[in-house]
Amino acid sequence: MKVLLTGANGYIGRRLKHRLLQEETIHLRLFVTHKQTLTLQERVEIFQGNTFDTQSLDRALEGIDTAYYLIHSMASHNYRELDRKSAQNFLDACIQAGVKRIIYLGGLGEKKSASEHLLSRIETGEILSSRPDAIQTLWFRAGVIIGSGSASFEIIRHLVEKLPFMITPKWVNTLCQPIAQSDVIEYLTLAAFLSAHENVMIDIGSETMSYKHLLLGYADAVGLERTLIPVPFFTPKLSSYWLTIMTPVPYSIASALIEGLKSEVLLTNENAVKLFPTIHPLSYREAVNATVEEIKTAQVLSRWSDASGEAWETDHANLADAVFIDRQIIPLGDISAKKVFDTFCSVGGKTGWFGFDWLWVMRGFIDKLFGGFGISRGRRDPTSVRIGDSIDFWKVVDLQENQRLLLFAQMKLPGKAWLEFLIKDGKLYQSAYFYPQGLAGRVYWYMLIPFHFFVFRGMANNLIKKSK
Ligand SMILES: NC(=O)c1ccc[n+]([C@@H]2O[C@H](COP(=O)([O-])OP(=O)(O)OC[C@H]3O[C@@H](n4cnc5c(N)ncnc54)[C@H](OP(=O)(O)O)[C@@H]3O)[C@@H](O)[C@H]2O)c1
Question: Across the strands, what pairs with 328?
Fold first, then answer.
């Protein structure tokens, strides 16, 4: 079976790729917007493109039997419109290419009470299912996914771990049916082999519980005592700001998710049980335990922030022409290039930034106030990195073994910035590049010169010391 997996760099996509590769009868083709985010593997083809470039879609869909649609454009402000267009292009191209089945994962919820984010997920499903005469669509719908790196789960985790007391708005009483990430992946995998030929909507989830019980259940699973103090208001704006500050998600995602908490997200059909009798979804407690174990053992395969999303500048060929450059050069002496490479590849997250970490934390806090990511995204893994990983408010855009790590700044900035660690001719070159935007960009750079002087010098020196 020839299978196309779109969104293969995303949270669900990366995990599904792993699982599909265990199926020997499947020949897998991945569709990603940036080819360099994935490493070449046996039995896998990688196609670069996007759903707004219909030629790239046509190429990727040639000879495909089953196509997974795991795309959404949540990072863009007009994501609803983009998602509609993307789904329509995908449907048309699948029909044109003679694809037999589309498998789509969207969100649970009713159209009449759906938030803007959920509406976009529903519209996508409706578009993909709109031509049953020409192509079959299996439309899965899931609520909160419990898994390390899932945005909703990361919110629960950060709130519970950071706050002994929580003033909880009315939305904590809304009911939902969470599902373990591993179950989602299993449903999606088995869907490729399903014998049904007509369109089916398949709601997936485990036990019914309120968001309050999600929070308390997580606290209980990790052995924390937590107290919730209920207030009878919804406070969507305040809640979104609060989540932005206390958790790794930026305001855009926090507000979209909070808006969705007003209405119940419960299963409306039993198709999952009927069509997939071998899957017995994990309970919430089991799902949390599995997730905690994944984090503890550094087995996190993907995170919500790994998808390319907004502000990923791929063109970094002309960094040397940047208007402002801060460069620190230090000879490696007798330290091997590998040691230095491993050290700078562990930057960020719990390791910190090799000195003046409190300044980075402050910068992260300011970033959060301006709606950015802040530094609480941390790292997927304490030591290993891959292109496309997020590290605090940076994105890994280039990685060359024992030579180079290039980070693109995703923080809110009046311009574009990169941070490069490069080993060349027995020396470490640590360079910060900045392309300012207008006067504000220039003022920003000059204001930070005193900080840069200490921060970047300290960073390079401490990095070498740590390598040693
Ligand atoms: N994660 C959850 O908790 C959750 C819960 C319920 C339902 N779902 C549903 O599951 C599906 C997948 O979600 P996810 O969390 O895995 O999303 P994600 O991590 O944000 O990934 C979205 C993917 O979409 C791709 N993409 C965006 N625009 C594209 C375009 N124009 N052309 C090609 N690719 C494009 C991105 O590719 P690049 O990275 O290559 O740019 C990215 O990999 C969504 O429909 C979502 O509603 C997710």
Answer: 430
